[in-house]
Specification:
about 60 residues, mainly beta, Ribosomal Protein L24e, Chain: T, 4 strands, elongated
Length: about 60
């Protein structure tokens, strides 16, 4: 599953997981991406991945 929002382009971020003893290991944060059916400008319906922030903001025309 592609973890990238098709509206805003939000994707995976990386950084450090810091333990109590301050040792650092690499970790990543993935956005909350949902598969939704969207009306296309040509009149059809397609399934795309959209982050929940774009869904709440109403940036997509759901089918």
């Amino acid at each position: 599953m592609s973890r990238v929002c098709s509206v805003c382009g939000k994707g995976r971020m990386s950084g450090n997981a810091v333990s109590h003893s301050h040792r650092k290991t690499r970790r990543s944060w993935a956005p909350n991406v949902q598969k939704v059916k969207v009306n296309t400008p040509s009149g059809g319906v397609s399934e795309v991945y959209v982050c929940t922030r774009c869904l709440r903001a109403g940036k997509v025309d759901r089918a």
